[in-house]
Amino acid sequence: MKSAVVHTSLVYFFSLLLVCLLNIDNVLSWYENGGEGREDVLRWLAAAKRIRMETGIGPSLDRFECAAGFMFEGSYKDKSKCDGGSRHSAHNPGGGGTPHVRSVLPAPVRAGVGGASRRETGDQVENGLLWANEPPEKSESQLIVKSALTGGSTRLEGNRKAPSEGLLAEKNSEINDPASSKRPRAEGSYDSRPVHAAANEPAAPGERLASVKDLTDSPSVGEPALVEKTIGNASVRSGPRSLLLVGDSLAYGLAISLGKDIKQRDGTELSCFSKVSSGLLNPNVFNWEKNIGTLIDEAQPQSVLIMMGANDANNHIRDGGKLCMVETPEWADAYEKRVLNFLNLVSESNTRVFWIGVPVVREEWLQKRIALANMAAKNACGRMDNCRFVDTHGALCDERGHYTNYLKEPNGTIVKIRAKDGIHFTVAGSKFLSRTVLPKLVGVGDGSLRAEK
Amino acid sequence: MGLISLYFALFFLVVLPLNWALRTTGRLYRFFLLGACYVFYGSQNPKFLLLLIHFSFWTWLLGLGICEACRSWLRKGLLTFHLVIGIGGLLFFKYYDLLYESLNQAFGFIRLGALLPDLDPIVPVGVSFFTFQGLSYTIDVYRDQQRTVRSPLDIFIFMAFFPTVLSGPIMRAANFIPQIGKMHHDMKSSSDGFILILMGLVKKLVLSSYLFEHVVQPVFQAPYDYSSLSVAIGVVGYSMQILCDFSGYTDLVTGIALLLGYSIPPNFNHPYSARNLKEFWPRWHMSLSSWLKDYLYIPLGGNRRGLVRKYFNILITMTLGGLWHGANWNYLFWGVFHGMGLVATHMASDFRGRISLFRNRETPIRRARWDSRTASTITAVVSWLSTFVFLLIGWIFFGTKSLGQAAALLHRIFDLDLVGKGFSHYVTVAALCIIATVLLHEIFRIRFREVLSWFFQTLPFVFQVALLSLLIAVLLRLAPDGVPQFVYYQF
């Protein structure tokens, strides 16, 4: 029996070692995000990475992954290493917390206007491969977030809703209701099939920039042409009267109500591209910096709404060689730089940006971190001409400004607004949040598009 | 610390050799194993750990009390107390929110929070499983005092054994506790363990995740966007996804336990090969099915009090089994649906039994004719197909969040509308291949594990390591980022 035990232990040990070696990128990410990494360990990991490349096993696995990529429909496979880099890769911030992160955008692009590139129809934005089921962050709150979320990217157009399973832990009957599911189609407000005959025509060079320019200078005239496209496994609508909301699971939660409300207000279409557990600091889950350009190219929105930070708040940042721990002023400075860099990438597309702050959360320790992330984002936004920070802290608070699970609707009904984890919100919570955000989206839909500070 | 994570892999790297090194040290080994279990469970959420320790303590104490109590009313009282705290805890965690919201809605004009405090309890992961384990122990002790375990350490380990604490299989103390410190290990169990882990990863990381992401989730979210055929594929995909997810989890934990030298009860035995519901339930989530049978159905009277009472007991057992999954009308409906199906199956079988008795006496020739191979094949196919369709309808209710959503899926399927979105060619081919493979594996009860284990055992050490690591690396490449939690974690 002793030999069997030794055999089992050795097989396990060496197999784990080899698996780690073969997936060294993920191990590196995991180690770096775990906190203050020891330099000698990092050196060992870097050496392991070299071995992996030099032996040729790593590239072979990458090739295998590329070859298998066709089966995955853009949902969760990272084909960037198969296709090359992206136009935004040069903008990776100097901080560069994860230098080994793969680029994401597929290569087959054709030239657009103003340096913008456009992918061929049917190409998809895809996210990075993650080690097993744990994103780099490991705090308790993140575990809770992940346990509440199972969906990948999600889509939402106008008042058409597509729930991410588990996102709205409660009260999601509305989005699951067959009647409500069918209703929009009956009213003709949304159909998944092409609405406009011209929808499938590729945009001519210059068209995109022109459309943004037109909107910038003049009020909306006539009925704008909406184009339905697929980005990753999300379907979005592009056009002069469209908004793109990007971010994490909270963004999706907001989109459920905001999409409906803003459509009712002025007919603006809201598309949402969200990735659960994502943020600017965990590119292994989804690399926003490398994907945002393509997302905007495809969606051609009038304005971009960004809602992220809840996941970032728990991640340390490696700024150059220095590790900035969460809840420190250094972290806030480093995060501000990241946000600023991201806003620069978004601004390349000549759109307005609204950065939507994260609402209050239940856990006090997490709230402190999120407040810091919100502050950093607000500061970064303040340094951009085309960006406005939308403070949502009080949107889901009680009269005393504290976190609450329940709020009273205007008609007196008491509704549950928060999910079990104290971070996400229910459909009802999404409505409250939307009511706070909507009035602050000044210039959206009315064509004025002037950044209001 | 999820089971499929680098954290767990490193944790197990430490636990595995120590488990064997300390095996013969008696109490020290038990402390070590208990510590490992608590580290693992505590990593989910330290607050949950307090609940687990609390319930384990009561389980041990009340088990001892039931054994020592000299009067039957006292024994009964102690058992009742344990049932109250166990089931009460479950009800609190799973149904408090529903009660709170219902009361608030019913009495909304009263000041918020006047009736009940807003506790907003988070359901601790695995609470249903370890509660059932604890209750089964005290009920067993109540029935047979010889089963009493006096060592608190053993009971605490039994309740918190880390491979099974999150989602079962639900173990019985009489099977598990004697194994503590007396584990056996050989090359066969080693290769069995590794192959089971590998199979678990394939099922979860590749098959289940693929179906969920590409077929199930899109269709369940927006059935009216898809054609009837696509929705039907989505529903069949869900039936395979939930099997792969849960049986993959079971394979994984069984493999981990085997490497530690423990044998845990099986949970699945080709359930989709069943030709009726009577065959299905002893094959699906076997540890829960047998728990419900032993501790609910039989105490209710089982089949000992006449046919009507038997049918009633089946219906009650299945309904409660459905509700066990959560405070949701869909689970209730799913339980009742299966209960009614099971009652119908039992009725048919009881009726057939009487008829065949009659036929045996009267017309033996007719019976012989029906026993012909063709007739039995047709009967088998029809029985299997009807059972499978019944299961699919049940899964629609199980996999959706509201009755409305389930109705939408059903409505869309029976629309027979071929207009609507379909899946891309690649996804269709891949999904159909997965579905066909799993179905064939189920129907013909193919025993992959035995063959693969035998093959793995014949390999030299170096090849074993190379094969294992390469396959896992490939699986990780095929896995999605942020693999969804195991479906049964939520229960």
How would you briefly describe this protein structure?
The complex is a heterodimer of chains A (453) and B (491). The N and C termini of chain A lie far apart (73 Å).
Task: Note down, in words, how this protein is organized.
The complex is a heterodimer of chains A (453) and B (491). Chain A is α/β, with parallel strands linked by helices. Mean pLDDT of chain A is 64; it is low at 84-238 and 447-453. In chain A, strand 5, helix 10 (249-266) and strand 6 form a beta-alpha-beta unit. Chain A folds into two domains: 1-55, no CATH class; 140-440, Rossmann fold (3-Layer(aba) Sandwich), CATH 3.40.50.1110. Chain A is globular and about 75 Å long. Chain A has helices at 2-22, 24-33, 39-55, 57-68, 80-83, 140-148, 173-176, 178-186, 207-217, 249-266, 288-299, 329-347, 364-382, 427-437; strands at residues 109-111, 117-119, 227-231, 234-238, 242-247, 269-274, 303-307, 317-319, 322-324, 352-356, 387-390, 406-408, 414-416. Helix content of chain A is 39%, strand content 12%. Chain A has a five-stranded parallel sheet with strand order 6-5-7-10-11, with helices on both faces. In chain A, strands 1-2 form a two-stranded antiparallel sheet. Chain A has 14 helices and 13 strands. Chain B has 491 residues and is mainly alpha-helical. Chain B folds into two domains: 6-183, no CATH class; 189-490, no CATH class. Chain B is built from 19 helices and no strands. The longest helix of chain B is centred in the first third of the chain and has 35 residues, at 72-106. Chain B starts with 5 loop residues before the first helix and ends in a 13-residue tail after the last helix. The chains are: A alpha/beta (453), B mainly alpha (491). Chains A and B meet through helix 1, helix 2, helix 4, helix 6 and helix 8 of A and helix 1, helix 4, helix 8, helix 16 and helix 17 of B.
